[in-house]
Amino acid sequence: MVSVPGGSVLQNGERVASEPVRAEMHSASEPPNGDSKDKRSKQIVWRNVILMSLLHVGTVYALFLIPKAHPLTWIWSYLCFVITALGVTAGAHRLWSHRSYKATLPLRLFLAAANSMAFQNDIFEWSRDHRVHHKYSETDADPHNAKRGFFFAHVGWLFVRKHGDVIEKGKKLDVSDLLADPVVVLQRKYYKTSVVLMCFVVPTLVPWYFWGESLWNSYFLSSILRYTISLNVTWLVNSAAHMYGNRPYDKNISPRENRFVTFGAIGEGFHNYHHTFPFDYSASEFGFRFNPTTCFIDLMCWLGLASNRKRVSPEMIQARKLRTGDGST
């Protein structure tokens, strides 16, 4: 959702200018006037309401299956959760939305597959909407505007049509860099098929095939329970991390530092920092501390699969704290 701001950052120890977001995008037609834009944002999408309700009912049922499942199924389900999370945090978010580091083709293919396991819209749509979120945060053009309340920012935004401003502003964003990536285009073209395979079929079949878990337990734990938890963890970044916590970097914006979200979202809860410095690959001042996503990207760089990590200098961070922070640490 953001056009990467200007200024200098540290890239592999050297100060460089942050990259501009490039490109053009295609979206749904915009409503003709302001009134219809507002009416559109109140139109309930009943299909989403019903499906999301059934998903959460299934998740409650899945909790009762945990004691009956093989311990290896627990481990596999958690591994799937981590892969799912990385598909969003290291993939759609830090790589494709913010271009905060570069990834080789094998790593991009892995992250695209992991993103399909996450089933939170394809990389193109996720990244486009996220850039809109950053550029127009807490306005009607923000897809999950936190000023409309916790429930709306968490999941309610999926229950109604997008506000017309989201569509209108989104059309004006430059996103050709996404369309120029063949991995993004490929995933978008075969998204439904990849979601069925990565989000449901593979997580379900592995426990059944390798250690004899029942397909029933495998489906509800490795697919339904894992998927629902990963969704809610991501949503907490939009809701809780925009409402609860301190603002040591910029007290004039809504996003906060939230330790609970940081833990659940494998490093995405340093949200006041992230909205202040969205081009930093670590999304945090503290590097790999409390940040498994940063550890993963660092490991990929060590393996030669990633490079060009962008960082903010300590001097820039301290200056920003003194200028706009709330005085907390």
Automatic annotation (TrEMBL):
It comes from the Eukaryota. One of its GO terms (molecular function) is iron ion binding. The chain crosses the membrane at residues 45-66, 72-92, 195-212, 224-244. GO terms for cellular component: endoplasmic reticulum membrane. GO terms for biological process: unsaturated fatty acid biosynthetic process. Keywords: Fatty acid biosynthesis, Fatty acid metabolism, Iron, Lipid biosynthesis, Lipid metabolism, Membrane, Metal-binding, Oxidoreductase, Transmembrane, Transmembrane helix. InterPro entries: Acyl-CoA_DS, FA_desaturase_dom, FADS-1_CS. It is found in: Membrane. Its cofactor is Fe(2+). Signal peptide: none annotated. The keyword ATP-binding does not apply. Residues 18-40 are annotated as: Disordered. Its main location: membrane. The keyword Membrane applies. CDD domains: Delta9-FADS-like. It is a multi-pass membrane protein. Residues 74-278 form the Fatty acid desaturase domain. Belongs to the fatty acid desaturase type 1 family. The histidine box domains are involved in binding the catalytic metal ions. This is Fatty acid desaturase domain-containing protein. The lineage of its organism: Eukaryota, Metazoa, Chordata, Craniata, Vertebrata.
